[in-house]
Amino acid sequence: MTALAPARQSIKIATRDLVRAGGGGEASALMTRVVQQKLSDYGNVNHLSFMPVDVVVDLESVTVGLPGHPHVTRALALAQGFGLVPLPAGRTPGTVWLDHIRCVAKEAGDVVARLAGAATTATTRALSPRERGDLRHEVGEAIAALVAVNAALDDDGDIE
Q1: How far is CA 2 from each of CA 6, 8, 13, 47, 145, rounded to the nearest angstrom?
Q2: Contacts of 18 (CB under 8 A, 6+ apart)
Q3: pTM to 2 decimals?
Q4: Are the CB atoms for 19 and 56 separated by under 8 Å?
Q5: What is the pLDDT of residues 16-35, one digit of tens each?
Q6: Per-residue 3-state assignment (H helix, E strand, C coil) for the chain
């Protein structure tokens, strides 16, 4: 049997995690068009078959809000060199652009402040897991602010 490349193994692991998040093989089979054994095969690195896209959609739609969501979609994006960022919820027409400017400036400033702090304390050592986690949190908030601006561009386009 041909060994799977690491990126494909990651997709298999994400598939296994998705089935577990869906309540296990038996519960997940009830929510999809495939049987429990096939779901097990899809998450097994020793099987070359992968979960069909419609089955991924079915299971990811019931795991919203659970840790790791969307499991397989995130792994697929990563395998192609992309990151996945959720769109903001509850977009409304009539964007207040000054609010976006404030938010982007604040979140970007938080990232710069964390980077500066890390650079001064870690010039001769690696960042601690806590420092990495804090920085990732700030970067995530800055990305979310920019995604909100991008989503607002799809709204009515009026500048208030």
Answers
A1: 12, 12, 17, 10, 43
A2: 28, 43, 51, 56, 59, 60, 63, 68, 71, 72
A3: 0.69
A4: no
A5: 999 999 999 999 999 999 99
A6: CCCCCHHHHHHHHHHHHHHHHCCCHHHHHHCCCCCHHHHHHHCCCCCCCCCCHHHHHHHHHHCCCCCCCCHHHHHHHHHCCCCCCCCCCCCCCCCCHHHHHHHHHHHHHHHHHHHHHHHHHCCCCCCCHHHHHHHHHHHHHHHHHHHHHHHHHCCCCCCC
